[in-house]
Amino acid sequence: MLLSSWIVILFITSLSLLCLCSATIVAYDSKSIIINGERKIIFSSAIHYPHSTSEMWPDLSNKSKEGGLDAIETYVFWDRYEPV
């Protein structure tokens, strides 16, 4: 169940990024995501923002894109935002 939740989050995030970049037709079926009629595997990597400074984020993002990644995963570290 947890894996399927992350897949949905990744899918929605990827769709959001695609919509910002260009006019794109996105669909999905039981096998894959379909972008402009072509089946696509979305490659992603994780960036843990507490391990880097905000000044590093644009460079990390650009390097990820240059390396062929389509999406960046991140986590919300709730212990930094909610009192214990």
TrEMBL record:
InterPro entries for this protein: GH, Gly_Hdrlase_35_cat, Glycoside_Hdrlase_35
Protein name: beta-galactosidase
A Pfam family per the record: Glyco_hydro_35
Catalytic activity: Hydrolysis of terminal non-reducing beta-D-galactose residues in beta-D-galactosides
Superkingdom field: Eukaryota
Gene3D superfamilies assigned: Glycosidases (3.20.20.80)
Keyword tags: Signal
GO biological process entries: carbohydrate metabolic process
Entry's family note: Belongs to the glycosyl hydrolase 35 family.
Source organism of this protein record: Hevea brasiliensis
EC number: 3.2.1.23
Molecular function GO terms recorded: beta-galactosidase activity
Range of residues in the leader sequence: 1-23
Biological classification of the source: Eukaryota, Viridiplantae, Streptophyta, Embryophyta, Tracheophyta
Domain Glycoside hydrolase 35 catalytic, chain residue ranges per copy: 32-83
